Amino acid sequence: MLHVGIIGAGFMGRTHGDAYKKLADVRLAGIASRGQEKARQFAEDYQCPNYSQPEELIAHPEIDIIDICLPTHLHEQYVVLAAAHGKHVLCEKPFSLTLEAADRMIEATRKAGIKFMIAQVLRFWPEYMKIKELCDQGAPGKINMIYANRLAQFPNWGDWFQDVEKSGGALFDLHLHDIDYLRYLLGPVRSVYAVGKQDANGAWNHVVSILNFANGARAVAEGSNQMAAGYPFTMSLRAVGEQGTIDFSFKAGFNLEERASAANAVVLYREGQSPEVLDVVQKDGYLHEIEYFMNCVKNDIQPAVVTPEESREVLQLVLALKESLESGQVVQIA
């Protein structure tokens, strides 16, 4: 039986809590949050102990895994502390806001010999997994161009998100999803360019990016949390290959609460054939992601679907996009 402690009792902490309730041989053994009202309600809802301080939860000898669902600027503090106590760590994206912080986390977790993964959920999302499978099998032929988007209303997670020094804005928190997936799908990136809208607090909350890949493919990705009230959370991807086109679209409720009943489909179009609506085995991406990490811990293997080094590379790409947004120039990736 694995014993998990979650730090952070907000929307994502509860999303992870829902997943742990569905897993055998895993027990949610504690919650810690600086917001004690949320923590008390979480402890009641999920029937687990409430720890007044994250440090107390991390130090508890019963805990095997720490799941960090905190604002981005707090990731490093608690990843490093958990590693020092020999706990395996699952940490929500984005990795961090700087490469220096990411490097310190990688070093601390490597030195501790623990399992460490950044929760890049698109790599575990059924439709995105199907697209990766199709591309790896060559169904659309060589990919020449991809368009992806992720559009949402401004999140209501708390005041911290409006502070660009704590969240990084939509560029880091939302757009990063598609940058991660595109890198996963197409390989190394050669250069990036971006345009966008910066808010009064300095956050890039609506961004359109162009990525040029080493294999010759190109991608355009749009990310925004500036949609008007009532606009459904929307994500889509269109991959155009030499022998076919893959099209995916998804519309859910505000902030993904209604993802189980969302309208979505993956369609493969090929020359001389009728469009094929693909059968995608439905499984909640967050549940799949967490189950994967639990299995890595149980089987004593390092996570391979998402490695810390890959998450660092994706952070490097996002920082390059930020440089392009600020300079108006194409940025080469070293």
UniProtKB/TrEMBL annotation:
Gene Ontology terms, MF aspect: nucleotide binding
Residues in GFO/IDH/MocA-like oxidoreductase domain copies: 128-246
Gene3D superfamilies to which the protein is assigned, alphabetical: Dihydrodipicolinate Reductase, domain 2 (3.30.360.10), NAD(P)-binding Rossmann-like Domain (3.40.50.720)
Gfo/Idh/MocA-like oxidoreductase N-terminal domain boundaries: 3-118
Positions in coiled-coil regions: none
InterPro entries from the UniProt entry: Gfo/Idh/MocA-like_OxRdtase_N, Gfo/Idh/MocA_Oxidoreductases, GFO_IDH_MocA-like_dom, NAD(P)-bd_dom_sf
Signal peptide as annotated in the record: none
Name assigned to this protein: Oxidoreductase domain protein
Taxonomy of the source species: Bacteria, Candidatus Moduliflexota, Candidatus Vecturitrichia, Candidatus Vecturitrichales, Candidatus Vecturitrichaceae
